[in-house]
Design goal:
Layout lengths: L3 H14 L1 H28 L2 H30 L8 H4 L5 H34 L5 H10 L5 H9 L3 H7 L5 H12 L3 H9 L2 H23 L4 H44 L26
Length: 296
Amino acid sequence: MKSRREIKALAKEAIREQRGTAILLAFMVALLTVISVGLDELANWAIGAWAYWIVYTIGLLFLYVFGVNMAGEYIKIFKRELADVGALFTGLKVNFFRKLGGMLWMSLWLMIWALPWVVVYSVLFALFLEGIIGDGAFIGLNLLTLPLLIPSTIKGLSYYMMTYILASAFEVKALESMRLSKRITKGHKGKLFVLGLSFIGWVLLASLPAGIFAGIAEASIILGGGAIPGLVLQVIGYLLSGLIYILFLGPYMSTTYAGYYVELRDKAIEEYKITREELGMEEELAPEEPGPVEKA
């Protein structure tokens, strides 16, 4: 299997061949997310909280499927195949409920594994609201609860390839995609974790404009600059951070993770952890045996 550096280098090369498509994919998913959030707030303002939750749920379900479709196109980019931004939408007609079912199944299990932390945090938050514990104790106790997130983090890495399986292995059922993902990532979860850490520098860089402009906005409000100029500054910061994500970080991360899926999948097949048939892949043709040489 190729190393992390090799896969990231291949991802960069692949992006150069379809840079426009890679950027548009990141832009469209970001835009769809913003539209979904905007519709949530509009429903809340115009109708009420119950409408907010209905619109929020519907938007989330569609974003799950858009995410699967996006993963499929980034797999194509990594493999130097022609990707298509329109597939984000045309892909809605292909196995919509299978894709959605797989993502909901993954989300359910991640919630189950995170349940101990959720229960403890909820208790601590209730005590904080009642004034039984102060700010310092609340922060300190929450830090002590972080180990409770380790199981859900490990399982998240184990389930990570479900999105790519749902996107590329059309014959795999939703529930089966989890079992295949666990087999593909077995022995490689540490590498996936390190891969995520390797993008921290990029994430901090992308977050920097939003953080700087938020600080300036806060200072402006304190100095009497007014709420509107402060809001404008924050919006500028968010737009700059979003621009860095869309132009660089989003395509780079998405193509790299798609490449990791391709590499881990192929390695799992080589090690007989999974078979090509389980993923609905065509069998590789064995080289033909040389026939007997006819004597002249």
